[in-house]
Design brief:
Layout: E1 2-5, H1 14-31, E2 38-39, E3 43-44, E4 54-59, E5 65-73, H2 79-83, E6 101-107
Length: 112
């Protein structure tokens, strides 16, 4: 099932969100070795996991994260513009009229 979560603090989605943030930690920190924020030693959450983020989360049929993508409006300070502007030779997307979103995908760890 695909879940659309527009509140990362939503109590009803907490187990699914925790599973997603834990998988992001396994992927980005444990596997890729990135130096990114980790909350409580187990959840990768950054400054873009806030009220502007919308998550599309696929569960595994048992309520755990299987895959996800974070959508973020480019009308706000975003990852591409803040951290990776050098990857945009034609300029960082920032026009609120276009409705463009920055997307950060994450897949679940298969070594559970």
């Amino acid at each position: 099932m695909i879940h659309v979560v527009d509140n990362h603090l939503a109590a009803a989605k907490r187990p699914l969100l925790q599973s997603m943030f834990a998988d992001r930690k396994r992927l980005f920190v444990d596997l890729f070795g990135w130096d990114v924020p980790v909350v409580d030693g187990k959840y990768e959450m950054d400054q873009f996991d806030n009220g502007h983020a919308v998550y599309l989360i696929a569960d595994d049929g048992e309520g755990r994260h299987a895959a996800s993508i974070r959508l973020y409006p480019t009308s706000e300070p975003h990852m591409l513009g803040t951290l990776f502007a050098h990857l945009c030779p034609l300029g960082v997307p920032a026009d609120p009229r276009t409705g463009k979103f920055e997307a950060v995908p994450a897949a679940a760890s298969r070594s559970r």
